[in-house]
Fold these 4 entries.
Entry 1:
Amino acid sequence: MKIVLCDASPLIFLAKLDALDLISEIFCGEVVILKCVAEEVCSKSAGDVERIRLHRLLETAAVIAFEESDYPSRSLSENDRRVLKWAIQNRPDRLVADERLLRRIAREDGIATIGTFGILVAAAKKGIRSREVVRKMVDDLVGKHGCRVSVALYQRVISELEK
C-alpha cells in the first residue's frame, strides 16, 4: 500500500477548498499525518468549518506520534523537521508539502514530493475535478485564502490546466 505523508499547509489549504479528499483519491494510499501536524492544523487559529473538515480527515488517516526533530536545518520549523525526519526514516511514497526547503531536502534524499497546486493539477488531469473547477480553486487559494505563490508558479499551474 502506498504511504502519503502530509505536512500542514496543504492540509490547511485543501480544507479551505473542501478538497481534502483529493489526497486519497489521487494517491490511493494510506494518508499519514504526524500528531504535531494534526495539532497544528486543528489549532484555534483554524476556522470552524476547516477544523471540522480536518477532523473528518484525521478520523481516517494514520495519525502518528513522532517527536524526533534532530534534522540539522534551523531554517525549517520544528514540525517541518519532524516531518522530514519521519520521511527520511520511513520512506513514504509521497510527501505532500508546500515549504520549498522541506521539499528540496526531501527530493535530494529521493523522496517524491508534491504541493497543494500539484495536487489540484493532478485532480484536473485525472478527471477527478474539471479543469474549470480547479482553475477556480487555484484562484480562490490565491485571492481569498492568502496562499502566497510566485507569479512563475501561478503561470505554470494555469498553463498546465489549459493543456
Note: Residues 72 and 81 are 8 Å apart (CA to CA).
Entry 2:
Amino acid sequence: MTDMPDGPETGPQRRTTRAGEGGAPVSGVLTIVLAVIAVVAGFLILRAISDDDGESSSGGDGGTSSVPVDSTAPGGSTPLDTTTTTTTAPPLVTTGAQVQVANASNVNGAAAGMTRALEAVGFTMGDPTNRSEAFGQAETTVIYYNAANPQALAVAESVGRSVGGVTSISELTVPAPTESGEADGDVLLMLGIDKAGKTLEELNPSTTVAAPGVTAPAVSGSSVPTATTG
C-alpha cells in the first residue's frame, strides 16, 4: 500500500494550446496574413516587369523613329522643328506706272545709266532728269509715287527692291523735286550718292533682278556715261 490517496491527481498539469476567438490557432492566422502579403508583392513585381518591357519595346529597333529633342529646352522635352522654310521674294511689278530717274547725286550720267538698267529688267521708263535746286544733293536714294495711280506704289516698291532696297518711299509732291518741277511718270526715283553710278548687279550682289517670266540680262552701264543730264 501507498500513502497517496485514490482519485484524480491534484498536482500541476500541462496546459494545452487555446484556440483564438475565431476558432483558428494564432499561428494559423499569421500564416494566412503572410501568404496574402506574398501574393500582393508578387503581383506588384510582375506588373513592374511588364511596364519596363513595354517601355523598352517602344524604343527598340523595331519601333518608330524617335523625334529629335531640343536638349536646351526645359526638361529637354521639346521636339525640334525639322521643317525647312524657304522664303521666296514676290515677283517684281514692272507695269502699271512709268518710272523716271532723277540724278540727285554728284555722279554725272548716273540717272541715264540707271534708266537703261531698269528698262532692261522690264520697267517702263521716262526720260532721265536732274534734281531741283531746292531738293539739293542727296546722300541716300528716295522714291516718290503718285497716289492717284493705284499701281504706282507697287511699282515704286519693286523699283526699290531692284536697286538694292530703298527705305524711303512716299507720295509725290507738287511740284515734283525735278529741275522742271514735273515728273515724267507716276514713280520718281531720286538717285542719291549711295546708288549712283552702280549697276543692278552691284546693288544686288546675292540676287538676280528680273521681271516676271523674264531672264535677267546682263546689266549694262558698268561705266558711267559722260552725259551731264541724268
Note: The CA atoms of residues 1 and 7 lie 15 Å apart.
Entry 3:
Amino acid sequence: MNTLYDKQRAMRNMRKAAMQRGVVAVLDVGTSKIACLVLRFDNSEGFGIGGAQRAGEGENEGIGAMAGQVGFRVIGAATTRSRGVRFGEIDAMPETERAIRTALQAAQKMANIRVDHVIACFAGAEPRSYGLAGMVDLEGHAVTEHDVSRVLAACDVPDYEAGFSGHREVLHAQPVNFALDHRSGLNDPRGQIGQQLATDIHMVTVDAAAVQNLAQCVKRCDLELAGVASSAYVSGISSLVEDEQELGAACIDLGGGATGVSIFMKKHMIYADAVAMGGDHVTGDISMGLQVPVATAERIKTFYGGVLATGMDDREMIDIGGDTGDWEHDRRAVSRAELIGIMRPRVEEILEEVRARLDAAGFDQLPSQQIVLTGGGSQIPGLDGLAAKILGHQVRLGRPLRVHGLPQAATGPGFSSAVGMCLFAAHPQDEFWDFDLPVDRMGKRSFGKAIKWFKDNW
C-alpha cells in the first residue's frame, strides 16, 4: 500500500504543478476512439488540493466535497480511431501509442500550445468496489486534521488481491462519510466536539497491468502521467445532474469494448464495476450475421440500427452493398427487422450483465434509483425503453453537463468520459493519499458490501 500511496500522491502533486503552470491535457483511452482535450486554467494561483491544505480556508466545502475549484477553458479537442485497445485495456502498445500521438498532436495544434502533462481515464481492468470503515476515540476534544488522518488510517483494508490471478492496484479511495458519535452523514467533522469519530471510504481496485501499460504508453509519447481515473467514475461526474448525484443514481457508460457501471449517492461514487462488452460487440455480431466487413457493419448500425422492431421494419429494406466483385453478393438487402433481430440479443446480454452488477451492489436499497445511460453505445434508438424493461428502473439518456465552450463535436454522450476528466482535473475529490496518514498502521480485515453503510447509517 505504501508504494501505491506514494505513486498516487506524486501524480496528484504533478497535476497541481501542471495546473499552476496553466495547461494540462485529458485523455480518454477507449476501445473505439481516443479523445484528447487541452485545458487552460484561468485562476491557477493559490488553489489547494486535498483536505490538509484547505484546513484554514473560510469557504470549505467539506473534506468529502470536490476541492480546489478552478476555472478552465477547453482550448483544444481532437479524436482519432482507437487502435491496440481491447475491452478498455491496451492490447498492442505501438498501435495505441500512435493513436494517442495522433489525437494529442491534433489537439495541441488546435490549442496552439505544447502539452507535457496528461490525466487519463480508461474502462475495463476488472474494477472492484470495497467499503472500508474506521473509528478512533477523541476523548471529548474538537476534531483536528490529525484526527481525520488517524481515522482514515484506522480503516480496515481488505485483501484485494484475493480471487484474482494478477496484481491489483487501488485506483480510487475516497472518504464518503464521517460520523461523530450518533451523527452520521457529515461532510467535514473538523472543529466539532465528540467522543468517537468514524468514517467510511469507498475504494476501487483494478488490474495493475492495465494501469502500468497505460502509464508506459503515455511515457512513450513523451508525456508525464499526472493522474488516472476510472471511466465509469468520470462519466458519472459529467452525466448525472445534481439531484441524481445527491439522492442516488447509476451511470451506465456504454463504450466500444466495455460498459462502465457507477453508482453515486450524496455526491460521491459508492460503487464501480465494468462489463467486458460494448458497442463493438454489437458491430461484430452484425458483421458476422450479414457477412460484411466491420466498417460496413458499423455504418449500418449507426444509420439503421435499433432494438425495438415495429410492423414498418419488415418493409424497410437496407442495401448492404459490397465490393467483392460478386454481383449477387454485393447487391444484397436486408430488412430493418432482421438487423434489429441481430442487434437486440447482444444489447439484452449487456443490460442483463449490468442488472446483475446493480443487484450485487444493493442498488435497490438506495432512496432513489434513477439510471442514466451514456457513452457512444447509448445512441442506439430504443435503447432507453429496452433498458427500463430489463433494469426495472426509470432510465434516461445522458450527455456531458457542466462544461461550457466545448466544440460541438465533443458535446455528445460519447464524450461523457472525456468531459468528466476535465471536471476531475479541475475539481478533484479528496482521496486517501491527500492526507498525511500513518499508513503502516492500517489493518488487513475485510469489510462488507460497498453500499452497506448507506443502508445502516443514512
Note: DSSP finds 13 helices and 18 strands in the chain.
Entry 4:
Amino acid sequence: MMTDLYQSQRAMRQMRRQALQRGVVAILDVGSSKIACLVLRFDGTGRLSEDNSIGSLAGQSGFRVVGAATTRSRGVQFGEINAMQETERAIRTALQAAQKMAEVRVDHVIACFSGANPRSYGLDAQVDLEGQVVTEAEVARVLAACDVPNYGEGREVLHAQPVNFALDNRSGLADPRGQLGQNLAVDMHMLTVDASTVQNLAHCIKRCDLELAGIASSAYAAGISALVEDEQELGAACIDMGGGSTSVSIFMKKHMIYADSVRMGGDHITGDISMGLGVPMANAERIKTFCGGVHATGADDRDMIDVGGETGDWEHDRRTVSRAELIGIMRPRVEEILEEVRARLDAAGFDHLPSQQIVLTGGSSQIMGLDGLASRILGHQVRLGRPLRVHGLPQSVTGPAFASAVGMSLFAAHPQDEWWDFEVPVDKYPARSIRRAMRWFKDNW
C-alpha cells in the first residue's frame, strides 16, 4: 500500500508539472458549506511583473488568478463526501463558472479537503554519508531510513515533509544538498488520513472529467495563507473554522509540524439556532451571520431580532427574540468547538514552542467577539487572519472563508519538498514504533 501511495503521489507531481507547462490549473476547495474554485494562469517564468502586486507573496508567486467562483456545497459532511452525485454537480457548477470568468478550459485540478481524521507523526533518522558532499541520493537514503509507524488499515499518507535536517550536529538546516559533512539526520512530519475520503474525492474529480494534479489537507493550506512569515517561522497555530469541521495546524520553521481536525463547525452553530428558535436552516444562517455573537452586554437584552418564518401562521412568523437570547444559543457550541481545539493543541505540545500565536480563519471565524472568547479558552494571543493577497484575486474571495483556497494556490506554485520528490527506495520501509509529532521539536529546537 505504501508503494501504491508513493507512486500515485509521484504521478500527481508529474501531472502538476504538465499543468504548469500548459499554463493553467484549477484550485478546488471542497468544503461542507461551499465549494470554491480558482483558476490560476502561470506566466512560465516563475515571476510576475512587480506592478500593482500587494503582499509579500504577490510579486514572486509566478501566477495570477484569472477565474474565481463559489457554489453552495452539496453532499459533503464534516469535510467528507457522503453523496457522490450531488458533490459532482456542485464541483461542475463552480468549475464552469470559474472557467467562464477565466475564458479558458481547465483539465488539471489541485484539491484540498478537511476532515478525514488526520493524524500526525514525527519521524527521524540518521545515516553516515558515503561521500563528503550531501547529494540528492543521500537525502533519499536518510528519508528511507525513517521508521514509518504502522498507521493502520484504511489510512493513507497525505503529506510527508522533511522539516529539519542536521549535518554533523548542525541542526536547523532547510536544505543540506551540496554541503559537506559526515553524518546526515532528518526530522520528518507525516500526516495520515482516512483512505476512503481521499479515494472518494479523487473519484469525484475523475467523474468531472478532470485530472487530479495534487491533493492537500486544508489545515495545511489555510496555515500557508493565513499565517504571516514570522508566525510560520517562530511557531503558530492556525485554526480554520469551516462549516462542517474545524482544522487545526501548527507551523514551525516554515513547515507544518502537526495537524488535526474537530468534527464541528459553523453549520453546527446554525443547527442549534434552527432548533432553538424553531426556524429553517436558511433563516438560522441569516440570523447567525447578521446578528450573531458570543459576548452579551446589557444592551443585547433590548436589541430585538426579527426571526421570520414561512409557516403561514401569522403569529408564529412575526416572532422576535432578543440578541442576548441568540447569543445564549450560540455561545455553548462555540465554547465546545474551542475546548476541543484546545485539547488538540495540548496533545500536540503547543505550549513547548518558542512562540504561541494563534490565528483564527475560515468562514466561521467572523462571528462577533470570537477572538476574545478564543483567547480566554485557548489561553494564548489570538488574532483573526485573512488570506494573503495574491495577484488577480477578486475582492469577493479575499475573506477568511477563502484561506484554504488561496493557500492551495501558493501550494500549487511552490510545493514544499515531500518524500516522493526523492528517489526513495520504497521497499526499505519497515513499519515500527509510532512517535507523536512534537517530541523531536523539544529535542531539536
Note: The longest strand covers residues 155-167.
